Amino acid sequence: MRNGTTVAVGCIPRVGGGWECSVDVRDAAGATRHAVTVQRDDLARLEPGAVDPQRLVRRSFDFLLERERKESILERFDLMTIGHYFPEYERVIAGM
Question: Of 1, 35, 6, whose CA–CA distance to 18 is shortest?
Fold first, then answer.
């Protein structure tokens, strides 16, 4: 990750489908923790063939950290919420 920032992602399946992911973002100034839900259909569309969303969530945080400070990222959200704030999200992620 750039500027000494590290992103650690762990995902577990949710009852009823999809995943709940825990994301820790660390840099020299400290750390933030985020809970991100990912739906199966979103994973299939954004990262075809993936069996879990860990890589997609990490890439999504790379995307976010290029645009805002870690402290500005929501503490809990569904992955597709990113597109509400950054309309180019899906296009950029699909091209990464």
Answer: 35
